[in-house]
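User: Hi! I'm working on a homework problem where we have to compare a predicted structure to a textbook description. Could you give me the structure for the chain below?
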Amino acid sequence: MVEPISIAGVGRYLPARRLNNADLPPLDKPCPPAVLERIGVTERGWASEEETIPVMAARAAGRALESAGCTADSLDFIILSNWTQRRFLPDFAPKVQHLLGAPQAFAFDVSTSCSGFVYGVAIAQGFLQQPRFKRGLVVASETTSQRARPHSKATLVFGDAAGAAVLERGWSPGRARLLDVELMTDGRYYEAMQINPAGHVETHIPQKELQALAIHSFATASQRVLERQGMTLDDVDWVVPHSGTAGIQALLLDTLKISPDRVLINFPRIGNVSSAAIPAALTEYVDNGTIKPGDVVLSPTTGSGWYAAAMLYQM
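Assistant: Happy to help. Predicted structure tokens:
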């Protein structure tokens, strides 16, 4: 029998430095107002030197633990999603473990690009099937702004953030519950996007092809997780997706045939924050009361590699 998993609490952290479009460094070529509107981001956070990956992760995690009503010393494990500052040694998760004060928790990093948070949730779900593990933390922390070429239009899109969720073994009525997770990989598109030697994102396929690939991934992962639970989009109250870009968001609405009123995205206010997008948005909409207890939520995501994932849960 599969052990049910609760989502006990969520939290996020946004950098203190907030930049609107006028605050950004000058672009190579001025961006007309119509293009700025089409890009769709009006404000984003850029992390300071002190707001490192572990520091932002620990701050988001602390808020998730507070939301869950538990302390760091009760965690059995910590899974940290990050690719924007990926390095061979050391991982960031052990530093987060130390900052939180959770010496008994084992901790490690995952990557999988923008899909990292949902992959982390799936890994946590597997650990929590074992009776010896009761509670785990999944946290995504990204400085996506640093992967944009300076003075390019990408600086208008990318932002920095962290988001976290506390997952627990078992479930009882009145608690948020993880229903299912779908994971996908398509290695045919392994090199669709890469980081160049200068450390900036480069796309190696035409933009229309990239958007079509992303939308196919979103839709396929969503369809699989819903069908496995005997559900359709009509059973879903809210879609909280990885934000991607404004163009991908528009295509997602058209492909899923879902009303914009049921899609919750804070992309205009924080930009594309990669794997932190879903937990950062989820926290915002739980905190402001938009997502209420009992609501069914679908969170699809996709990212370079080529990865896709979707998680289905009931708050």
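For your comparison, note the following. The longest strand covers residues 160-169. The domain at 177-314 is CATH 3.40.47.10 (Peroxisomal Thiolase; Chain A, domain 1). Good luck with the assignment!
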